[in-house]
Structure formats: C-alpha cells, structure tokens
Amino acid sequence: MNVKDLKPRAAVDEIILTIVSKAEPREFATEKASGKVCNCAGKDDTGEVKLTLWNEQIDAVNEGDKIKIQNGWVTEFRGEKQLGTGRNGTIEVIH
C-alpha cells in the first residue's frame, strides 16, 4: 500500500515509510490508560502522512529510519489523515 491510497477509518495491510520528522514525546493520562505518545511524519514515493507512535514504539523509531507497519489503521483528526498501529498492528524498523 502507498500513502496516496490511505483512506480515513480504513485498515492498512502493510506500508513501508521513511520517517522524515519526529516531534517530542508527550505524556497522557485518561481514566482508562496513561503513557506516552509522539507524532511523526512518514513518506514514500507517493506522499507524506502523519504517524502516531505509542509508548515503546517511540524509542524504537528515529528520524531517517525505514519502517514497515502491518495491520495498521488510518484515522482522521482535524481533516488530516493519521496512521498508527491500532490495537493489533505492528511496527518494525527495516534496513
């Protein structure tokens, strides 16, 4: 799958991206959970997408890394598509 094919509220079987930027992680706490979240941007030959990293994913991924997301999920926030691993997805740094 490519960035240009991503649709809000849709599953992503597999996508390979290069991380082009990574913001500072921030902590969150709700009634159900607490942890850390970090926004990144990833790109491929067809475009760029915002990427959300959670907890241990934050330390595993750095700017310039090539990553593979499997079983991911696309959401929409303030009119922008955001990609994440969702509940069952995985993220892996590849070479």
Briefly say what this structure is.
With 95 residues, the chain is mainly beta. It has 1 helix and 7 strands, in the order E-E-E-E-H-E-E-E. It has a 5-stranded mixed β-barrel.
CATH superfamily: Nucleic acid-binding proteins
N-end to C-end Cα span: 18 Å
Number of strands: 7
Secondary structure class reads mainly beta
* Coarse morphology: globular
How many strands, what sense, and barrel or not for the largest sheet?
5 strands, mixed, barrel
Low-confidence stretches: none
Query: How much helicity do the residues have?
Result: under 10%
Strand content: over 45%
What is the tally of helical segments?
Answer: 1
Q: What is the arithmetic mean of pLDDT?
A: 95
What would you note in describing this structure?
A hairpin with a 2-residue loop joins strand 5 and strand 6 (80-84). The protein is mainly beta. It is built from one helix and seven strands, in the order ββββαβββ. The model has no long low-confidence stretch (mean pLDDT 95). The protein has a five-stranded mixed beta barrel with strand order 1-3-4-6-5. It is globular. It has a single domain (3-94), classed as Nucleic acid-binding proteins (OB fold (Dihydrolipoamide Acetyltransferase, E2P), Beta Barrel). It has one helix spanning 56-60, and strands at residues 10-22, 26-29, 34-44, 47-54, 66-77, 80-84, 90-94.
